[in-house]
Design goal:
Strand content: 15-25%
Shape: globular
CATH class: Alpha Beta
Radius of gyration: 16 Å
Strand order of the largest sheet: 3-4-6-7
Organism: Microbacterium aurum
CATH architecture: 3-Layer(aba) Sandwich
Largest sheet: 4 strands, mixed
Protein name: Dehydrogenase
Distance between the termini: 41 Å
Length: 137
């Protein structure tokens, strides 16, 4: 029994949301909203959080267009879809975290891209995503 416990705990954490990937594949906004409300989102980090501090979730990486100053938040259905040019660290964030982050930065973020490099990219405004996350509330 002890051997089984160790093998389970040594399994790597999966940084993906299969429902989100399926929603992106069909480009279905209702399915996207459902996936965001009921599963995690892969978020690129500029600085990973401290493992010993559960309040430190790291520093989220955003893209600022040098020409317009517009800020985009990039989210992923699976860590394998994150372009290598982005910082290497990622976090798997909850729906509550995403709702709070979007609310805190809604005035600054102009658009949110999902799986920007493919295979099935989508984009939405922070306001649309906040509304989608609030549907169950």
């Amino acid at each position: 029994m002890a051997g089984k416990k160790r093998s389970r705990s040594s399994e790597p954490l999966e940084f993906r949301n299969t429902q989100l990937a399926d929603a992106l594949q069909t480009q279905d906004m209702a399915a996207l909203a459902f996936a965001l409300r009921h599963g995690p989102t892969v978020v690129p980090l500029l600085r990973p959080g401290q493992r010993d501090d559960p309040r430190d979730s790291g520093e989220v990486w955003t893209y600022r267009d040098p020409k317009t100053g517009d800020v985009a938040l990039l989210l992923f259905s699976d860590a394998v879809h994150k372009p290598a040019a982005l910082p290497p660290a990622v976090a798997l964030q909850s729906p509550a975290w995403l709702r709070a982050f979007l609310s805190a930065h809604e005035a600054e973020i102009t658009t949110v891209f999902f799986d920007i490099a493919g295979p099935h990219p989508m984009q939405a405004t922070p306001a649309d995503l906040i509304a989608a996350l609030d549907l169950d509330a």
